[in-house]
Design a protein that fits this description.
alpha/beta, Rossmann fold, 2 domains, 7-stranded antiparallel beta sheet, 6-stranded mixed beta sheet
């Protein structure tokens, strides 16, 4: 479970900001929301099942997601994929002389099993400036290791790090090195990062292959179809038609499903892919949706088969491929982060996805959902507590700031959506005179 994520001097974030999943000491008007939308970890810690992040275009919402994605990628790969002189892909805040040459800060607090960890690092493009790992097995936080450039000090309880100081490159994370040498604590933390899901709501390319792989499993397939049917899209079944040689041959091959506007482009794409992967290794895959067919009297008389990538809407395609990460996250109690979640989806469907997490019935493993959005229909006291709603806003120096609705003086019976649109919470775009800009009117 995720407790907090902090980022500073990274892209549009000049000063450190913290996204907290810790439940504030407040109560929603509906007591059911307080039960369904929170996770009681222990007597002192209660977390939230979901958080929505709002803000104008270019306010920094995607930068927050990008920072978490970068941290995940760097933790998983820095010890084995980076070379000695390879640059670290941090991007400091470039609009201030105070920060352009300073390191970026990334820190995450989370729970693995029954233990709470706080891990972070500071880095510039050349090297790791500092790195730290603390754990809270019981009441008090204890140090596991602290790093200042090339000097690394390990506590006795972090024996797995002993002797690895000289094996850690300046541009690699010590945590990643310890995990590479099978350190149990470091490995468990890397597994947590690996299970952290971060996807885009604008494009499903990053997770469509995962959903197709899971679709091969009977129980997972039934769950995907049930989720799709429950959304009232008219789809009765989904089938995947693979070429015969992909089904039967032991030869490794790649099956790709891509929606293309016509056969000429499809042939061109096939030709380009074969040049890269080799002729015969690229096989077309057809994902078919099954719909009922009716006679003039409205009675079902058969079935009609549609091609998902050609005959179904982009929203339906996204929903189908999104079911894979959603079902996996709910089934395993993981954390899922979605940037621009509402893209290509109807507001009621977006709401239904959120309600899967804000419910003890559909989320018994207490998974967490964090997403950025522009959909103000979701700003409802019947869906969220105030501490689940976050805003990102840029100041006059183009630096992004993050704050929650719980930090503002807002009544529990206030209309969150109306007040946000009216600008009472900030984090809205300054439109200016669009007519004058577009039509040239005075």
């Amino acid at each position: 479970m995720l407790i907090e994520f902090t980022v500073g001097n990274f892209r549009s974030f000049k000063e450190p900001v913290t996204l907290s999943m810790v439940a504030a000491k407040l109560k929603a008007r509906d007591p059911r929301i307080n039960i369904n939308n929170t996770i009681r970890v222990n007597d002192k810690l209660t977390l939230l099942t979901s958080s929505a992040i709002y803000g104008a275009n270019a306010s920094g919402k995607s930068n927050l997601v990008h920072a978490l994605r970068f941290m995940r990628s760097f933790v998983l790969s820095s010890s084995r994929e980076t070379q000695v002189a390879e640059a670290i892909e941090v991007q400091p805040f470039r609009l201030s002389t105070e920060t352009v040459n300073s390191p970026s800060l990334l820190e995450v607090t989370f729970i693995v099993g029954d233990i709470q960890y706080r891990y972070g690092f500071e880095a510039n493009t050349e090297r790791i400036i500092s790195e730290w790992l603390f754990s809270t097995p019981k009441q008090r936080e204890s140090r596991l290791f602290i790093r200042q450039k090339d000097r690394i000090e390990c506590a006795r309880v972090f024996k797995e790090g002993s002797g690895l100081e000289d094996k850690t490159r300046p541009n690699a994370l010590f945590l990643s090195v310890a995990a590479q040498f099978n350190g149990p604590i470091a490995t468990s933390i890397l597994i947590w990062f690996r299970k952290l899901g971060i996807i885009s709501g604008l494009s499903d390319i990053g997770y469509r292959s995962y959903t197709l792989q899971q679709f091969e499993k009977d129980d997972f397939r039934a769950e995907i179809i049930n989720r799709v049917k429950a959304l009232d899209l008219g789809i009765q079944d989904v089938r995947i038609d693979k070429p015969a040689d992909v089904k039967e041959s032991a030869k490794p091959s790649i099956a790709i499903s891509v929606a293309v506007p016509d056969d000429n482009i499809a042939e061109l794409l096939q030709e380009r892919l074969e040049k890269v992967f080799g002729a015969g290794n690229i096989q077309p895959m057809s994902i078919q949706t099954i719909h009922k067919k009716y006679d003039a009297g409205g009675s079902p008389v058969g079935e009609e088969t549609f091609d998902l990538g050609v005959n179904e809407s982009e929203g339906t395609q996204k929903l189908f491929f999104l079911t894979g990460p959603l079902i996996n996250t709910l089934a395993t109690g993981r954390v899922l982060v979605i940037d621009e979640m509402e893209a290509r989806m109807h507001p009621l469907i977006t709401r239904s996805v959120i309600e899967l997490f804000n419910s003890l019935d559909t989320n018994p493993k207490r998974a967490q959902l964090i997403f950025t959005t522009h959909d103000t229909n979701l700003l409802s006291k019947n869906l969220f507590r105030r501490d689940q709603i976050w805003f990102i806003e840029k100041d006059h120096y183009e630096s992004s700031h993050l704050y929650s609705l719980a930090e503002l003086k807002v009544r529990n019976d206030a209309s969150f959506e109306s007040d946000y649109i009216e600008g009472r919470y900030g984090a809205i775009p300054f439109i200016g005179n669009i007519q004058q800009i577009i039509l040239g009117e005075k």
